[in-house]
Amino acid sequence: MNARERIQELADQVVVLRDAYYRGSPLVADAEYDAIEDELRGLVEAHPDLAPDPNPLDQVGAPAVLHAPVRHSRPMLSLEKATKPEQVAAFFDRFPGQPVVVMPKLDGLSLALVYEDGRLARAVTRGDGTTGDDVTPLVRALVDGVPERVDAPGRVEARGEAVMLRSTFAAYNTAHPDKPLINPRNAAAGTLRAKDPATVAERRLQFFAFDLDTSADAAAADLEQGLRALGFAVADMRHCEDAAAAQEVISGIEARRNELDYDLDGAVLRLANRDAFAAAGTRSNSPRGALAFKFAAEEKTTLLLDVVWDVGKTGKIAPVAHLEPVFVGGTTVTRATLANQEVIRARGIRIGDTVLIRRAGDVIPFVAGVLDESKRTGAEREIVPPAACPSCGQGLIEQGNSRELFCTNVACPAQAVRRLIHWASRAAADIEAVGPVWIERLAEAGLLEHPSDFYRLTKEQLLEFDRIGETSATRMIDSIVASRAVGLRRALIGLAIPMASEGTATRLCRAGFGSLEEVADADEERLVAVEDIGPKVAASLTEHLGRLRPELERLRQYGVSLDVRDEDLPPVVASDAPLAGKTVVVTGAISDPRSGEKVPRPTFQRLCEKAGATTATSVSANTDYLVTGADVGASKLTKAEKLGVEVVDQGVIWQQLIEAGIA
Ligand SMILES: NC(=O)c1ccc[n+]([C@@H]2O[C@H](COP(=O)([O-])OP(=O)(O)OC[C@H]3O[C@@H](n4cnc5c(N)ncnc54)[C@H](O)[C@@H]3O)[C@@H](O)[C@H]2O)c1
Ligand SMILES: [Zn+2]
């Protein structure tokens, strides 16, 4: 094929792929699409005379069906891409002495917000860059961070990205396991295509601004200051003096990308001064004053080779996808989770399909969906859930809307291995030197069946194994011996009692239980008196600890501590601590106001406890404050209102924690 033909072929592919992508059903992963664009760009640069006409590289988005078309005041462009530090250095060289801001490149959809005389007049999507769709009612109803009024005269236009926060995405998918959203970006785009906001009310979005146009004399020359002064949220902008500083910020964003509450696919560098950015001008489809540094893809396509049903520690039978190895999110992935039968059905996945794998936010990669069903050959196979436990052969029971399968055989060998691995895990006994592979071998050899069996193992037994030498045997035994100090809280976690979470274990300790046996002996009345323990959890504790009583005796016999430890109890706090004596309930997504980083709720609760508070998970008449983060569900607020509980924004608590030197 000559260059002319190849250029035409690539240009045609770009048009087709973009069209499918912007309709919400991509045919390939982003990285594959980008490679096609890159090849086309390279060929056109080498043969300018062969440039296709029209050249899709000069366009952004896709010609979409617009319901209420609005022409943009100036085009909404794409961004020039970079992947190497030299390109960052070259950007700084182009603008000597100019301050640059570096910020995350959010993966959502761009919006232009137009204000006239201080009021929001319209919100418009990017569309094909020249003309977008007026989505004002949807944005008003569903997007946080869009002020209704700004304190500036005349015309103000703020542009930015509307994203679905990962916490919202996860909460939505937990609530709708039968109709999960594929990824936050698709979810955001789909939300703003809805006909009626009421039908998508649970899919709240968040707007982060990154561009500002105003003629107001008083507006700050600095982009971030200008945006903040008008009340817009920005996603962590850092000012950088030189390329080295920028590179450090970029690396920092990449390192933290899984901890943040939004998906991002890179970092954007941009001239910090608004006038300098405007003066730099534009190329055919990108501004000269900005550069996008792209990170390794977190989404790739690969072949689904098979589905294996895996038995978990509580007997849950979960489908695991076996994949043709694919490099995604920085590692080679060969397995991914498929969640449950309903997800498989909702996503229409078959063995032999080319599927989209995502590895973002959470560590476990998952199958996000099937790509291009038209590529099917007919040889694909349906994924059939097993009728019996693949380990012990006992019949399964089905539970809940998402139809999760369970093996209820307490003697199931696969469950036993999972429970042993769980006992040795960090959250429980933390037997660091004996990893899952060895646990499986030792169980196969008949040396391990119950957690207490770890403490009977001898060095001689370990040395029988081919690949265990003197040094590793000693390390394994030392690690087992050290784990005997496990204590009440972590032992309870380690026993993997259905319905008893880590929180349950913590609260039992704090409610005054001194040992695991004391929990096993307690009657229902005493158990349900503990915060957050209801009759079902109480019954599960009683049933399973009752069954495990011989095991508790064996653990004791081998010197394993099942008594409460200091670390299981709340931290000692000074009487003048800011939240002393207060009972607080934390709800919504919590983030540190200084960095914008998401903070896991338990971490924040621990900080509140250090400040003297008692934390609870449901609002009651005893609650002093309901501390609210982002995306708070209405039910907690209504309950708080009814009971007269004070609702406090997380910002107020953060300030107290910071002032007291606790956070
Ligand atoms: N899989 C496919 O088939 C397929 C097809 C077409 C496009 N795509 C993907 O869609 C994207 C196409 O490029 P594009 O032109 O829409 O976007 P882009 O990658 O060129 O970046 C421009 C966009 O980035 C967004 N953005 C996020 N944070 C920003 C910030 N801080 N500052 C400025 N802009 C910010 C804006 O919405 C802006 O419109 C690429 O990621 C591409 O891989 C995929
Ligand atoms: Zn079984």
UniProtKB/TrEMBL annotation:
Positions contributing to NAD(+) binding: 30-34, 78-79, 126, 161, 294
Substrates-to-products reaction catalysed: NAD(+) + (deoxyribonucleotide)n-3'-hydroxyl + 5'-phospho-(deoxyribonucleotide)m = (deoxyribonucleotide)n+m + AMP + beta-nicotinamide D-nucleotide
Instruction: Tell me which Gene Ontology terms the entry assigns under biological process.
Output: DNA repair; DNA replication
Q: Name one GO molecular function term.
A: DNA ligase (NAD+) activity
Coiled coil (UniProt feature): none
The BRCT domain, residue ranges: 574-663
The broad enzyme category this protein falls into is: ligase
Q: Which family does it belong to?
A: Belongs to the NAD-dependent DNA ligase family. LigA subfamily.
| Name of the protein | DNA ligase
